[in-house]
Specification:
2 copies of one chain form a homodimer. Chain A is of the alpha/beta class. Chain A has 2 domains: 126 residues, Aspartate Aminotransferase, domain 1; 230 residues, Aspartate Aminotransferase, domain 2 (3-Layer(aba) Sandwich). Chain A is 40% helix and 15% strand. Chain A has a 7-stranded mixed sheet with strand order 2-8-7-6-5-3-4, with helices on both faces. In chain A, helix 5 crosses helix 9 and helix 11 packs parallel to helix 13. The radius of gyration of chain A is 20 Å and the shape is globular. The N and C termini of chain A lie far apart (46 Å).
Chain lengths: 371, 371
């Protein structure tokens, strides 16, 4: 057996989820509860009826690559269609980093799979932590100060999971300028934009890729369109980087599902804006923030995505894992311990549940934490 | 950039395919031309309409795992649902082999991705060649003699791509016995069964997994159901091996497409036998063999799959790549050079094309080789 697999710890998110019983309130997984539109599935089915279900080229259906490129104002050759943004993250790390020499710098708190992918691929990995005292505010100076001689990629999520923070224009500018000053030694920036369509700031910051040349971007339809099971995402970047990624992609799965690519094509060329589901989450967020304020729970107000970090009282601050388990036992509410993301002393609440479930869940969390 | 990617040569199959022009005859790609049944897609669409399109568990929808397990007479915990058999191959090599110590032994001629996956994952790889003079006949003694102290996995394809040879019961028995005699040092056998439903021998040999404990099996619906674009396959093996594979699987793509899993569930629990398309290929094969005989082309009669190896005349025997290009230029027929599979001096013909196209293509190949 490959010893790196044994060394990778299991998922705390899925471990808590596995303890969920019928009737429990789920503020754990980032799985939208609203239903996806069915019209794109009907259009995809018509394509299958007309043309069968053959392979697409490895990099994706040319029509879909063109549609994604049009949305991002780039060329189709800069797009690799992937099996969700999970594969896009894996591809970027696998294709762009040399395990013998390079280091990945992760801005934490962060989605735990980033570090685990690096571990799986034998790539050195270091974290630079944002300051809990500022609510994990984006901080270009901290990130720039953490870059070392081996740093070949910086992983930036905006909106960020678990904090919901969105990097504002001024911080993105500062980061791009600081990196550009490193000249030929400047690292890649891998921007995880999977919550791109769920930004509640106005105006929305301009994308980082417009500011910095060595940028790779991952995204998918999972979160914006309640299509986590579609497994359809993309990796964007300079053509040479995408060509390298496509090479790894073909060996790991040949290509993404042709049916899923048809669904994505219908969405990307359809009349609806990609953020059509945002108003639903804006209303949900307003209800969340009002209830958190009335309950007196200390939290980070999310600028984007559909998570909220709640600060634990002193008696739980050193052990968010124990807290999440005790909360589940006592109140039957699933949450995710901050420790899963490198943020001990916090609890991540997902607020995708139906409104009444969310309200009941928050009441129970508050009751438990007041203890 | 990861230097291993630059070192992996490009695909000869796709390189020839990229030169194809409208009107050319395609005897190259292994892409079925018959149309898939639409009923499983309708059933899958109904599932999406009723339940949305959420993630399944990493290892796959429990109902699909159970349906696959029932077909293979194993337990659901022995099944990991994958993005085609391509991902299943990658997972098996990634999860089971230690790049620092282990070697993969490939029985050649072989599907070129086997060696490239090993190269991508830094796993040492060696080939044991079957004898062209016997038409690449399965030969357990040769394989056993090639096993070295570092060999931790043997890759066995039956039916084999590109030769179409099927391992018969006596050779499978001899291989299993020889491996079992190695005791604790016995390697894994990864059986690529992607053409399992397309076997033209009667009776069909019993599966290798029934004879040998350290067996992993890959398969998919791509070839048996004309669903290459569904990207739905599976890896089977002992529970501990599957648990390790699922761990790697979650980081590379989370899970297979939920829609594709619904399609697969409809097929695996449906009334039709899994080899319902075999009669189509049997008729196609009979026409192929009759025409090859009348044309006087030296070839290996396929026991399974939908390929046929044709031996090149002396003037082309040292350069099948040049031959395939010259054939394409002169006669507008796409084929794959044997060199792509480690079988210099041969040409692989795929016989999935419509009957009239296949017949015309074979005439042209014969005319060209007669020169």
């Amino acid at each position: 057996m490959n010893p790196v697999l044994e060394a990778i710890p299991g998922s705390l998110i899925r471990a808590l989820n596995a303890l969920k019983r019928p009737g429990d309130i789920d503020l754990g997984m980032g799985e939208p509860t609203i239903r996806p539109a069915l019209r794109p599935f009907e259009l995809a089915a018509a394509q299958i009826a007309a043309h069968g279900c053959p392979y697409t080229p490895n990099a994706g259906d040319p029509a879909l690559r063109a549609a994604i490129a049009a949305r991002y104002a780039c060329r189709p050759e800069q797009v690799c269609v992937t099996v969700g943004s999970q594969e896009a993250l894996w591809l970027a790390i696998k294709a762009m980093l040399d395990p013998a020499a390079d280091e990945l710098l992760i801005i934490s708190p962060a989605y735990p799979a980033y570090a685990k992918i690096a571990q799986l691929e034998g790539v050195a990995c270091r974290e630079v932590g944002l300051d809990p005292a500022t609510g994990f505010a984006p901080d270009a100076a901290r990130v720039l100060a953490a870059i070392g001689p081996r740093t070949r990629m910086v992983l930036l999520a905006t909106p960020a999971n678990p904090t919901g923070r969105v990097w504002p224009d001024d911080q993105l500018d500062r980061l791009a300028e600081g990196l550009q000053a490193l000249g030929d030694a400047r690292p890649w920036v891998l921007v995880d934009e999977v919550y791109r369509e769920l930004v509640y700031l106005t105006p929305r910051p301009r994308p980082f890729a417009a500011r910095y040349d060595r940028t790779l971007v991952t995204n998918s339809l999972s979160k914006s369109h309640a299509l986590t099971g579609l497994r359809l995402g993309w990796l964007l970047g300079p053509e040479a980087a995408i060509a390298a990624a496509v090479k790894a992609h073909q060996f790991v799965n040949t290509a993404a599902s042709t049916f899923s690519q048809h669904v994505a094509h219908a969405i990307m060329t359809g009349d609806e804006p990609l953020d059509a589901q945002r108003p639903h989450y804006e209303a949900q967020r307003a209800a969340l923030l009002a209830q958190l304020a009335s309950l007196g729970l200390r939290h980070v107000p999310p600028d984007g995505a559909f998570y909220c970090m709640v600060q634990l009282p002193d008696r739980w601050a050193a052990d968010s894992v124990a807290c999440a388990h005790a909360l589940l036992d006592a109140e039957r509410v699933v949450t995710v311990p901050g420790a899963a993301f490198g943020a001990e002393g916090w609890l991540r609440l997902s607020w995708v549940a139906e409104r009444a479930q969310l309200a009941a869940g928050l009441d129970r969390v508050a009751r438990f934490l007041r203890g």
